[in-house]
Amino acid sequence: MGSGCCFRSTRGSKMVSSPVMTRMQTFLQKEMVREFLAELLSTYVMMIFGLGSVAHMVLGDQFGSFLGVNLGFGFGVTMGVHVGGNISGAHMNAALTFTNCALGRMSWKKFPVYVLGQFLGSFLAAATIYCLFYTAIIDYSGGYLTVTGPTATASIFATYLPDHMTLWRGFLDEGNNPALQGTQAVVIGILVVIIGVSLGMNTGYAINPSRDLPPRFFSFLAGWGTQVFRARDWWWVPVVAPPLGAYLGGIIYLVFIGSTAPREPQMLENSPVYEDRRIPVLPKTTSYPPMTSSLTPISVSPNSRPSVRPVPPLRDSIHLEQF
């Protein structure tokens, strides 16, 4: 009895779990779901490397540097593109997603999907870095989580305006975004490093709402308080300026470069290849001999078996070698 009961329960669990797994697999195979997860994971990877390098610079005098932060974010972007580039393009940046939608290169219905994935990945990365460096943060700050001052640690998670910068100068600095990022991971990573080492001193070069706002919100929840939003009223600039700068850069690129770029001749995307050459489209005027039936009508009686003459081979056949 006992073994039979166990057998029935196991069989029942398989019957219950199988439809659940099927529905889950069907759900995960949807295009927008895959793009959401790709943006989440790629942004998480980028932010883990980036925020971790910032934590080293803030908390450890012998372990981190500003150059290390630039390299951390640069290689983080590169790794993020490798994670989700083939699925969503690995934007990892709400400004880039906004620009693609505004310029008609992506549907607006995907905008909230991409941005939500980016924000959630960035928030989870901030939580991970907080857990990994918690003891170092408490030791460095003496247990007081502050935004400004000699032992401030909020800058691990978000950017803050330095004393020598004004709000609107910082706005212009954050709006200095690259025009339209390509899809080559190494090139994008190098670009991020170059922006950091050349323009990063003024504002910390957030250049990405998805990089700045979710970790800032996490630091608010984790104990740094409302000061993370009140400090010099800076919090909204990394959210607003990068999309505007990216959009302006995209327009400049399309007007002065994109419209004059030579286009390759169009080829059949799905045509087979023979000796490294694509088969050309046959002209519409080409005609071939009409195919006539080789079956001769015969009368069939109920007691006789019908006979059919064999079909001769076609006179004209097309071979790949003729092209």
TrEMBL record:
<feature type="transmembrane region" description="Helical">
    <location>
        <begin position="36"/>
        <end position="59"/>
    </location>
</feature>
<feature type="transmembrane region" description="Helical">
    <location>
        <begin position="113"/>
        <end position="137"/>
    </location>
</feature>
<feature type="transmembrane region" description="Helical">
    <location>
        <begin position="182"/>
        <end position="207"/>
    </location>
</feature>
<dbReference type="InterPro" id="IPR050363">
    <property type="entry name" value="MIP/Aquaporin"/>
</dbReference>
<dbReference type="Pfam" id="PF00230">
    <property type="entry name" value="MIP"/>
</dbReference>
<comment type="similarity">
    <text>Belongs to the MIP/aquaporin (TC 1.A.8) family.</text>
</comment>
<dbReference type="InterPro" id="IPR000425">
    <property type="entry name" value="MIP"/>
</dbReference>
<keyword id="KW-0813">Transport</keyword>
<feature type="transmembrane region" description="Helical">
    <location>
        <begin position="143"/>
        <end position="161"/>
    </location>
</feature>
<feature type="transmembrane region" description="Helical">
    <location>
        <begin position="65"/>
        <end position="83"/>
    </location>
</feature>
<keyword id="KW-1133">Transmembrane helix</keyword>
<feature type="region of interest" description="Disordered">
    <location>
        <begin position="288"/>
        <end position="323"/>
    </location>
</feature>
<feature type="transmembrane region" description="Helical">
    <location>
        <begin position="234"/>
        <end position="257"/>
    </location>
</feature>
<dbReference type="InterPro" id="IPR023271">
    <property type="entry name" value="Aquaporin-like"/>
</dbReference>
<feature type="compositionally biased region" description="Low complexity">
    <location>
        <begin position="299"/>
        <end position="308"/>
    </location>
</feature>
<feature type="compositionally biased region" description="Polar residues">
    <location>
        <begin position="288"/>
        <end position="298"/>
    </location>
</feature>
<protein>
    <submittedName>
        <fullName>Aquaporin-7 isoform X2</fullName>
    </submittedName>
</protein>
<keyword id="KW-0472">Membrane</keyword>
<keyword id="KW-0812">Transmembrane</keyword>
